[in-house]
Amino acid sequence: MENINQIIKIWESNTHSYDQREQLFDKLMSIYNYGYLKHPSYVKQILLTQWDLINNRTKLVIKNQLIIDSDKVLESLMLRYPVYFGEPMTNYYNSMKVKDCLNYNCTNLPTHHLKYAIVGPVFTSKSIQKFNVIHVWGINLESRNTNDYPIYVNNNNLNVGLYNNAIKDLFDLIYQSALSTTKNNQLIHIRIPLIGLGAYLNSCPSTDKNLALSIFLNTLVSQLKYSNIKVYLCIYDTFITNDLIFKQWYNTQYQTKAGQLIIDRNLFDVSMFNMTDNLFLVNAWDNKSFIGNGGSLDNTIDGYLISANGPGNMIPNSSYLHNPFICTSLLSPKNWILI
Question: What are the boundaries of each domain within the chain?
């Protein structure tokens, strides 16, 4: 196993000065075998001019269990594949450059069944100028080979109890990430996509896909216990809003939160907000990849949001900088938020 403490020292030393951060960014971009970001000059500019603010305010949020193994959390946080689509996409990046830049071998990396979020401020060239991103991941059932599949699918049936508890933990992480980084009980706006209900359900038993949607929607409402949070559920695919399961939920559970819960479409359209709003966008991250995963070649929310590709070009931003090899404050357990 890699020497985590030694890697931490190296990563921290890479961000000490303006010149070191500039060299780090250039090395990181050279890892990929293609133009990873659509706006690299902007992200680099923010790294050089706003790193102190981003590094100090970006937090790791994790459930306060009886025993938190900080070494396992650090392994999960640090030892990741640059790009992971159900398996390491080794044709997308240069493993030797990963070793040269980040000082670990990105092959046969350990898997830990942990759930946590990374939350922090990002800058954008659009009029809103600054907002926040919460990076979390859903239950990965995109193939029978994922680590989640044997846990949540038994005898070709979704384990409803375990899946329901995991979705509760997901929303708890989202809401608490926003609450713990906002002051004075101010109104919080959270824009949430259908996390885990797209490609992550590819191998879910077909008869249970509607059940997964129902659990997600009902838990979204049941966990929304905070009067100062306003949620915008962003559903891009209209076939979902025409689904009978969604209509039944809309006519019952949704109505209990009318005014506090808004049905929206485009996650990336933040034109109605301004810089003074406490705005959070939720990113559907992956449990084994860097933040941003496949970047400009990744047609998911993670790729769009971080690389400014596709619909993400509506709000080009600096969220790639939340990766822990740049935001090194994440590497200190004393900076973690326990919920």
Answer: 4-338
